[in-house]
Amino acid sequence: MSRERDIAALTATIAVQRGRMTPLEWGREEVSGLLAAGLYAAGYRPAKAPVANWADLVARRLGKAGGAGR
For residues 46 and 67, what is the distance between their CA atoms, to the nearest angstrom? Predict the structure, then answer.
């Protein structure tokens, strides 16, 4: 990942954790699907969105990263 994408990923992560963005808004950002999956695997569930939406976001992001078909 480029430095700019690293900074964007970190910024989006902080925004989600502070409740300033929902996971669906976060999904529209250029944030790594692996970062989303890592947060999900670590048990992070944002309070503002149903878990189903979060799981869907992770699945879509992983699909873009080549993880589809599992």
Answer: 23
Domain that holds residue 44: 3-64
Is residue 14 one of the residues assigned to a domain?
yes
Write out the chain's pLDDT in tens, 70 residues: 466 666 666 776 777 676 666 666 655 554 556 566 666 666 666 655 555 566 666 667 666 544 444 4
The count of residues in the chain is 70
Looking at the 3D structure of the chain, how many domains does it have? 1
Is residue 48 included in any domain, yes or no?
yes
Which of 28, 25, 42, 34 shows the shortest CA–CA distance to 6? Answer: 34
